[in-house]
């Protein structure tokens, strides 16, 4: 049997796949992607509800993550927090996220981003589930919030890793794994590729961030979970390891991190 893969971060809600996720999941399964963490974030909680519904329908293969993206941090009022807190406690939900800081676009004020991030780190600690972190141009503040709010208690994932080795070392020390997206296949991504070569084998994951960031050789196409195969192949090349070794290790790491197994077929 060929080694299986887990796409640890994909967005499959109807705004991206209006005809549903079944065909997307079938194409992924056909190339050996057997598990998925479906992330539900958006301007409201509809994507979170959709992610949970999909995980309920296909529980053997899908876990959901629910959170508030930093772009939408300003939308987190008490009513939204209460619903998110309820969703986060559901057994189908394997993580709180993606949450974090994004200083590139600043769609929400930075102080609001930090406050929302801190509040949701504490929600993850309360429900005892790992954190999926989005960070862009906010490396120092991201690490600061994680450290100050006790994120080490639950650990988590730096998703779509786009920082450098010093950041990766600090994140790993805080109990976080490093997840590589299609960016690691880009010719210009030398700092990320350096981290992929260096990172401990038991602390790496692969993802698509579907429908974004399609890897080489699929650039220019809407990304989907089947494409995580290309990311895993590139990580294997960078490390001088076989594809099967990377598939086996990243799947084992995903199952450890999310506290569940994923179907083998």
Automatic annotation (TrEMBL):
It comes from the Bacteria. PROSITE patterns: TATD_1. InterPro entries: DNase_TatD-rel_CS, Metal_Hydrolase, TatD-like, TatD/YcfH-like. One of its GO terms (molecular function) is hydrolase activity, acting on ester bonds. A divalent metal cation 2 binds at residues 134, 159. A divalent metal cation 1 binds at residues 9, 11, 98, 209. Keywords: Hydrolase, Metal-binding. One of its GO terms (cellular component) is cytosol. Belongs to the metallo-dependent hydrolases superfamily. TatD-type hydrolase family. This is Putative deoxyribonuclease YcfH.
């Amino acid at each position: 049997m060929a080694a299986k893969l887990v796409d640890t971060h994909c967005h499959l809600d109807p705004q991206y796949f209006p005809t549903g996720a079944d065909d997307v999941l079938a194409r992924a399964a056909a190339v050996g992607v057997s598990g998925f963490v479906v992330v539900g974030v958006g301007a409201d909680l509809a994507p979170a509800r959709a992610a949970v519904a999909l995980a309920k329908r296909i529980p053997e293969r899908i876990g959901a993550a629910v959170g508030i993206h930093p772009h939408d941090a300003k939308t987190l009022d008490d009513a939204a927090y209460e619903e998110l807190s309820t969703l986060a406690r559901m057994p189908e939900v394997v993580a709180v996220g993606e949450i974090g800081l994004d200083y590139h676009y600043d769609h929400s004020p930075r102080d609001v981003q930090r406050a929302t991030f801190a509040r949701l780190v504490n929600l993850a600690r309360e429900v005892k589930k790992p954190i999926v972190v989005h960070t862009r141009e906010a490396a120092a503040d991201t690490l600061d919030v994680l450290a100050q709010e006790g994120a080490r208690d639950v650990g988590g994932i730096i998703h779509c890793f786009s920082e450098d080795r010093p950041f990766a070392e600090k994140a790993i020390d805080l109990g976080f794994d490093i997840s590589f997206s299609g960016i690691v296949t880009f010719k210009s991504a030398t700092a990320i590729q350096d981290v992929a070569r260096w990172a401990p084998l038991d602390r790496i994951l692969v993802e698509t961030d579907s429908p974004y960031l399609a890897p080489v050789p699929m650039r220019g196409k809407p990304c989907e979970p089947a494409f995580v195969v290309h990311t895993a192949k590139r990580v294997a090349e960078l490390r001088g390891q076989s594809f099967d070794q990377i598939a086996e290790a990243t799947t084992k790491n995903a199952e450890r991190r999310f506290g569940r197994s994923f179907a083998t077929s």
